[in-house]
Every structure is written in structure tokens, then in C-alpha cells.
Specification:
Helix content of chain B: over 70%
CATH class of chain B: Mainly Alpha
Radius of gyration of chain A: 24 Å
Order of helices and strands of chain B: HHHHHHHHHHHHH
Oligomer: heterodimer
Number of helices of chain B: 13
Structural class of chain A: mainly alpha
Order of helices and strands of chain A: HHHHHHHHHHHH
Helix content of chain A: over 70%
Number of domains of chain B: 1
CATH architecture of chain B: Orthogonal Bundle
Distance between the termini of chain B: 41 Å
Strand content of chain B: under 5%
Radius of gyration of chain B: 22 Å
Distance between the termini of chain A: 40 Å
Largest sheet of chain A: none
CATH superfamily of chain B: MetI-like
Structural class of chain B: mainly alpha
Number of strands of chain B: 0
Number of helices of chain A: 12
Largest sheet of chain B: none
Number of strands of chain A: 0
Strand content of chain A: under 5%
Shape of chain B: elongated
CATH topology of chain B: MetI-like fold
Shape of chain A: globular
Chain lengths: ~290, ~250
């Protein structure tokens, strides 16, 4: 008994210490500095209460960013999970060498670093060099090359598209693994009873993986919400704020406007905006 | 991407509707490798990834193992599931700002080890979740049999559980490597001096400082993508197996 207690404590203490160092201490810091007017390069600051929060929540920018965040996060999360599920089903139903190589090829986008992804797509969509624009002009879809990243109404869809392209493999691999846990005999039994493959999916496979589907969808939503790298590399939140989401605004406030306190407040607000989908998620999963 | 890195700029400017040309050059690679600190940045990235794996695996193994084995006895360990979800929910930027300050106090700002510690927050939640599912899948009877034979808790962990978890742990390692290799944000926040840049930030520097052409950029982008692509192709099997075990456990 004593040995066991010692064992548990000696495992938990170092790991929890590390966790609190990298996760909770920063959160506490951010929460504290969000109440101050600290600038990033100065060590002096005053406590100013919730002024930062009021200022940001009252600004027009806030509404636009929430809308952007949901547009970006939700659309690409849904697309990623659906496309991932589609490919997972495709992989599940093919076999042999073809399936192995297909798995690797389909997984590739996820293994390419953000910087390479952004450069690749910037090149492909480049108005002067980009092959895609050459094709568009060649086929006569548009008279002049389209500047995808320079118009507010094309920038967001392009960002969503690239995010989806990059991250659907993550959903795919989870669904593929989930499909492999579906008991074979259940599927066989359904087939012997004369079920078509649509029926097999609807009545056997889908109920089995439903929970994992929702979890994945939700994980992707959370992930997209907090993701900074891709949008930063593609548009830096521009043109005129059309692709601004929370992490981008936080970064800009902290490192180009140097208002550290305000940036922390924005980060904390972003966390609270995330809690709403979390509660929704818990509600949905509890009901099922 | 690879194609445009081996083609002369003139061909690239003329544009191609079909990606095919007979002119293949390697000078873009040569310029990137010899005129910049690219190899240094490359090594930096590899160091950070390795350090991060070395940090991440022990921490997630310790927490996940305790949380699965003793949750019946110690109630507070049950919050573990929602807890790992909560960790996943924290946007990295929220951590990046304070970590920059904290590392400043600890003299870890602008060091590779600091970056590795920060990067591990990316991979921790998912590694915890993976290992948690895996450990709850190992039947406790195996351990009990070992206890009957007189093994201690530590022996069971090192001699039985860890060898059994090799696929899951490798999945975690691969996953960590990929996420660290992909990272851009922490490196941008926490690294200032040129010699310590990881590749991703190095690329950014190339774009800013030099009038580099698309050919050069694509060559560098290809070089950066190679390790994570190779690793994921080689290790896809383990990653898949790890997820499979985990999902079996969480159902």
C-alpha cells in the first residue's frame, strides 16, 4: 500500500509540475496581465481592471472576428471531417498494395510544414507565375489573373480550402482506425442478410463510429480556432481584416502594437468564446 | 513544389500549363544550401524535435499511466478525460505570450531547449489522449500476475507495460516529431537570433532579406518538407496502430 502511494506520487509530481509550468503558469500570467496596461518592452505597469476587456468587447472588430472565427473554424472543421470520412471509407474498401500507397499519398499534406504549404499554395495561386492562374486565363474563365489573397471575398474561402487540404488527413487517419475497430463479423452478418453497402454503412458502421465522428469534428473545430500559423503565413489577417481570427489579432496587438496587456485580454476572451462550443459539444454527446 | 524547384526561373516565368520540361537544374538547391545558414537551421530543427520527444514521452506516459491505473482508487484522477480536452482547447498563442516572459526570467528565452519545452505543449494533449486509450486497453490481469510473482510497481511499468506499449509510444513520438517540425508560431515568438532559427523561421528570413525567386523558395520548401514526409511514410503503420488501439479503449 505504502509502496503504491509512493509510486503514484513519484510519477505524478514531476509530470504535473511540468504541466503546470507550461500550461497553467502561462494561463495565470495571461489572466493577470490582461488586467494591466503593460507594454511589451517595459516592466512597469498599472492595474487597470477590466478596461482591456471592455475596450475589446465593445469594438466593432470583436463582432467581425467572432464571425470570421466561426466561419473559418466551423466550415473547415466540417469539410475536413466529411472529406476525411469519405477517404477513410474509400481506403477501408480497397485492399492490397494500392491501399498502402494511397494511404501514404493521402497523408502527405499533413506532413508538410506550414511554411512549405503556404509557399506552395502562394506559388500555385500566384498571379504571374502560378500555374492555376495560367489555366484560368487559358480556359477563358477570367480575362486577367485572379489575385486570390488580395480580395476580401476570395481570401477567406482560399484559406478555408488550404486548411482543409492540409488537415483532412488527420480526420482520415482517425476514421480509418475507427473503421478498423468495427467488428468484421457484424459487417459480414449484415451482408449475408442481403444488406447493400449503403445499408451496411447506415445501420452497422455509422452507429459504431458516430461518437468518434463527433469527437473528431469537435477537435478539429478547437484546433482551427486556435491556429495561428497557416493564416498568418498566407494573409497575416488581411486584406482589410477579412481573415482576422483571434490568434492573429492577439499576435498583432502584442507584437506590432506592443500592447501586451490588451493582447492577454484578447487571448482570454478567445478562450471564453471557445467554451461555448465546448458546452454545446458536451450537451450533444450527453444526449446521445 | 519539387518540380518548380528544379526548373530554371525563365521557364517558370513563361509559365507552364502542363508540368513538364526537359531543362532540369539543381542550382536553386545549391544557392539555398551554400549562401544561407540553412544547414544550421536544419540542425536546430532536428535538435528541437528530438528534445521535445524526450520531454513529451516521459511526461505523457507518467500521467496517462497513473490516470488509467489508479482512477478507481483516487477519485480526482477521473477528471483526466475532460482535462486533456481542456488542454487541447487552449490556443497556443495564449501560452506563447506568457512563456516568452517566463523564459525571459529563466534565461531560457532564445534557446533551443526553451523552444522544445514550449513546443511540447502542442503535442502533449494528443499524446496524453493516445496513451490514455492505450493503457486502459491493457488488461490489468497481466499486471496482477506479475505482482503475484513478486514484481514491484516499477518493475511492472518498465518490464511489462512499456514493452507492450511500444507501438503507442512510437505513435506518440512520430506525432510529436511532425507537430514540432510543422511549428511556426512558437519559433517566431521565442527565437530571436539567426543562428538559433529553426528552418521554418529561417525560410521567413529568406523571403524578407533576399530577393529570392520562386525557384529558391520552392527548393527550400522541398528540403523542409522531406524529413516529416519520410518519417510519416515510414511510420504511418505505427501511427495508425496507435490510433486504433486508442479508439478501442475509448469506446
Amino acid at each position: 500500500m505504502r509502496e503504491e502511494k509512493k509510486f503514484v506520487i513519484s510519477l505524478l509530481i514531476p509530470s504535473l509540475f511540468f504541466l503546470s509550468f507550461v500550461e497553467f503558469a502561462p494561463l495565470g500570467y495571461a489572466a493577470f496581465y490582461s488586467l494591466t496596461d503593460r507594454l511589451i518592452f517595459s516592466t512597469e505597469f498599472n492595474l487597470i481592471g477590466f478596461e482591456n476587456y471592455v475596450k475589446f468587447l465593445g469594438s466593432e472588430r470583436f463582432v467581425r472576428i467572432v464571425l470570421n472565427a466561426f466561419e473559418y473554424g466551423l466550415t473547415s472543421a466540417i469539410l475536413q471531417t466529411l472529406i476525411g470520412l469519405g477517404f477513410a471509407l474509400l481506403l477501408y474498401n480497397t485492399s492490397g498494395k494500392l491501399a498502402t500507397s494511397m494511404k501514404c499519398v493521402l497523408f502527405l499534406p499533413y506532413a508538410i510544414p506550414y511554411i512549405s504549404v503556404s509557399l506552395l499554395w502562394k506559388f500555385l495561386l500566384d498571379p504571374v507565375y502560378g500555374p492555376l492562374n495560367k489555366w484560368i486565363v487559358y480556359l477563358g474563365l477570367s480575362k486577367s489573373p485572379i489575385l486570390f489573397f488580395s480580395y476580401p471575398n476570395t481570401a477567406m474561402p482560399v484559406c478555408i480550402f488550404i486548411t482543409t487540404w492540409m488537415f483532412f488527413p488527420f480526420a482520415m487517419i482517425i476514421f480509418y482506425a475507427a473503421l478498423k475497430t468495427v467488428p468484421r463479423d457484424l459487417v459480414e452478418a449484415a451482408k449475408i442478410d442481403g444488406a447493400t453497402s449503403t445499408q451496411v454503412f447506415k445501420y452497422v458502421t455509422w452507429p459504431w463510429i458516430k461518437r468518434i465522428f463527433y469527437i473528431t469534428l469537435f477537435l478539429r473545430l478547437l484546433f482551427n480556432f486556435g491556429k495561428f500559423d497557416l493564416i498568418w503565413l498566407l494573409t497575416q489577417g488581411g486584406p482589410i481584416g477579412a481573415t482576422e481570427i483571434f490568434p492573429i489579432v492577439t499576435w498583432l496587438t502584442a507584437f506590432s502594437e506592443y500592447r501586451y496587456g490588451e493582447a492577454c485580454a484578447i487571448a482570454i476572451i478567445a478562450l471564453w468564446v471557445l467554451i461555448i462550443p465546448l458546452l454545446l459539444f458536451i450537451y450533444v454527446t450527453r444526449r446521445e | 513544389m519539387f518540380f518548380s524547384s528544379v526548373v530554371p526561373d525563365a521557364v517558370l516565368l513563361k509559365g507552364f500549363l502542363i508540368p513538364f520540361t526537359t531543362q532540369v537544374i539543381l542550382s536553386h538547391y545549391d544557392v539555398v544550401l551554400s549562401k544561407t545558414l540553412f544547414t544550421q537551421w536544419y540542425l536546430n530543427s532536428l535538435t528541437v524535435a528530438t528534445l521535445c520527444i524526450l520531454i513529451n514521452i516521459p511526461v505523457s506516459v507518467m500521467i496517462a499511466y497513473v490516470a488509467t491505473r489508479f482512477s478507481r482508487k483516487y477519485m480526482f484522477l477521473r477528471i483526466f478525460g475532460p482535462f486533456s480536452l481542456f488542454l487541447y482547447m487552449i490556443p497556443s498563442i495564449v501560452l506563447a505570450l506568457p512563456l516568452a516572459l517566463i523564459f525571459g526570467y529563466l534565461k531560457a528565452f532564445d534557446t533551443l531547449i526553451g523552444l522544445a519545452i514550449a513546443d511540447s505543449t502542442f503535442a502533449l494533449p494528443l499524446s496524453l489522449w493516445l496513451l490514455w486509450g492505450h493503457f486502459s486497453n491493457i488488461p490489468p490481469e497481466i499486471e496482477e500476475a506479475a505482482f503475484v510473482d513478486g514484481a514491484s510497481r516499477w518493475q511492472v511499468l518498465f518490464r511489462i507495460i512499456l514493452p507492450l506499449s511500444r507501438p503507442a509510444v512510437s505513435a506518440v513520438a512520430i506525432f510529436t516529431f511532425i507537430t514540432v517540425w510543422l511549428d511556426y508560431m512558437f519559433a517566431l515568438t521565442l527565437i530571436r537570433s539567426e543562428v538559433r532559427y529553426p528552418v521554418s523561421i529561417g525560410m521567413n528570413w529568406l523571403i524578407r532579406e533576399y530577393s529570392f525567386t520562386w525557384g529558391h523558395l520552392m527548393a527550400a520548401a522541398t528540403l523542409i518538407a522531406i524529413p516529416s514526409i519520410i518519417i510519416s511514410v515510414l511510420a504511418f503503420k505505427y501511427l495508425l496502430y496507435g490510433f486504433e488501439m486508442t479508439l478501442k479503449g475509448t469506446r
